[in-house]
Amino acid sequence: MKEQMTPLEELRHSSAHVLATAVLRLFPEAQLDIGPPTDTGFYYDFDLDHKFTAEDLEKIEAEMKRVIKENQRFEKQEVSREEAIQMIKDFGQETYKLGRLEDIPEGDAISFYRNGEFLDLCAGTHVNYTKKIKAFKLLSIAGAYHRGDSKNKQLQRIYGTAFQTKEELAEYLEMLEEAKKRDHRRIGKDMKLFSFDAEQVGPGLPLWLPNGTVLIEELEKLAKETEFKAGYDRVRTPHVGKESLYLTSGHLPYYEESMYPAMEFEEDAGGEKVRYFLKAMNCPHHHKIYAASPRSYRDLPLRLTEYGTCYRYEQSGELMGLMRVRSMQMNDAHIYCTEDQFEEEFNAVNEMYLKYFKLFGLEKYLMRFSTHDPSKLGDKYVDNAELWIQTEDMVRQVLKSSGINYVEVPNEAAFYGPKIDVQVWSAIGREFTIATNQVDFAVPARFGLEYTASDNSKQTPLCIHRAPLGTHERFIGFLIEHFGGNFPTWLAPEQVRILPISDKIADYAKRVLAELRSNGVRATADLNAEKLGAKIRRAELDKIPNTLIVGAKEAEEEKVSVRSRFDGDRGAMSLEEFKGDILDTIQSRKLQIKTKD
Fold it and tell me: Do residues 558 and 476 both lie within one domain?
């Protein structure tokens, strides 16, 4: 049964129909594909020789306002399949709509919605009249392959948004403007964090510059400290593996299209060729590490963690800065445990997420609990109905008992078990998927993983796949936008910049620099022969969290004048006092958020 739309979804769905109505008025030769509501608005896909422009968006939006003013009624009509075919042809939209009609299973209701002269194959629902749409805005144009398949024709997608009130729309548009300023690709370039060289290195393969490498290493340091305290053991595995490894794990049948093509080598004297793959995931290698030694119930839980680099051949059209890449460093771990240990271990992983949320100032989050579709066992999912039900119930119980905010989403589990995707919202309200927590009840048995139980029987452990910081690439992309490049002092690539007011103070500036760096503070000194105002402005543009201004008085009194990006002018303090203060800020990983520049 189709789930009923919310009033906001109805409004946005209706806005998509009004968009299509306006486009056909202005470009009657356009062929329509689909136009659903989304979490943030709506879109419609068009096949049109004419390339849409920003000027076209303005004309289309003006025409939408005319359609709305006409107060057209949305009228539903249910028809037979034969009638539907004829209606689509009569309306001149058979190119894509006939294919969409074929998607409707035999026996299911087929319906159209009409508003004014516009007719669309649609299950609904909609508002009653177009005048209900009071606050909308067209936002952008993008390419979109028909049915999301790069083998199909690329269509033009027009994105828009709509809200119940103009105030809500204005607030959302303001957030979008702030998001543009915080775009991690722009800030990453300005702050010299990373770069790409698609021509010679390859698309989707980031090159981490020194400043960006600091971010990676600080996150690794954080995770290593956290995991050490939680009883994890660190391991390392190769970047490649034989085909047989991924056949055993089951990844190749489900995942090969997302992996780099195989490399073939002659492996032995007989000339037999063996295929190797760049690893797209760490778990098969970790299973081999588990299998390297006999295990007893006394050895469990065993928590293996690694910062392995993985490679996935994402479609070129889906690559987007650090958010979608082909080379990724994963904050990955696998926990092998008994059923009795599962609840405690799974809950401990969730608690680790919550600690990270607090550290980075993430106040809004949601766990998306993804379950399987029983009708797709053996196809999309491992064919073991009993274990699916058992493990999903186990995860559900942990989430309920821990009081964690979650929603249940059907048919989005991993092929080997239920999973949780972690949704977080940045400081300006943008939603991101940053991490995952998965249950694997199938693959350990494929590798013959066992432990000796207390009764001397051989048992197969459960495996929890978890990555609280996800990949460094995506997580750093999120942090860039969350902090707007204004990283808290502990995370900032450059923590302190010393600004002498003249060349005469250069020696003291160097002494302050040496003292800070000897204590592990990432400090620099701006010794350029420029006016102080220019140096201060450059430090602000570079988003330096702590600026120290030193003149003759400061040099004489062994002091520094402190300007904080977060707290403003803090005045003069002794070098020893400042050193103690900043070391405490760094070591405690103090949260500092500057919402706007």
Answer: no
β 309-311/273-278 pair status:
unpaired
Q: How many CB atoms lie within 10 A of CB 557?
A: 11
Residue 529 domain boundaries: 496-587
Q: In 3-state terms, the chain is what percent helix, strand and coil (to 5)? A: 40, 25, 35
> In sequence order, what are the residues at sequence separation of 6 or more whose Cβ sits closer than 8 angstroms to the Cβ of residue 220?
307, 472
Alpha-carbon torsion angle 525, 531, 536, 537, nearest 10: -130
CATH code for the domain in which residue 383 is found: 3.30.930.10
Boundary residue ending a domain (450, 481, 512): 481
**Along the chain (597 residues), what's the average pLDDT of each consecutive run of 10 residues?**
78 98 98 94 97 97 98 96 96 96 94 97 94 97 89 95 97 91 94 96 96 96 96 96 92 85 80 89 95 96 94 86 93 93 91 92 90 82 81 88 86 82 87 86 91 96 92 94 96 98 95 97 95 95 96 95 95 96 97 78
Of 213, 214, 232, 235, give the one whose Cα is nearest residue 307: 235
| Number of domains composing the chain | 3
Same domain, 315 and 380: yes
Q: What residues have CB less than 8 Å from 327, skipping those under 6 apart?
A: 204, 205, 206, 309, 310, 311, 473
* Distance (Å, whole) CA 398 – CA 466: 15
205 and 72, same domain (yes or no): no
Q: In what order do the strands lie in the sheet with 546-550?
A: 523-525, 496-500, 546-550, 559-564, 568-574
Q: Is residue 220 part of a domain?
A: yes
DSSP symbols for 283-307: HHHHHHHHHTS--BGGG-SEEEEE-
Locate tokens 């204004």: which residue?
486
Reading the block at residue 436, the tokens are: 């995952």
For residue 501, being part of any structural domain is answered with yes
Pair (505, 425) in one structural domain: no
Asked whether residue 358 is assigned to any structural domain, the reply reads yes
pLDDT at position 510:
97
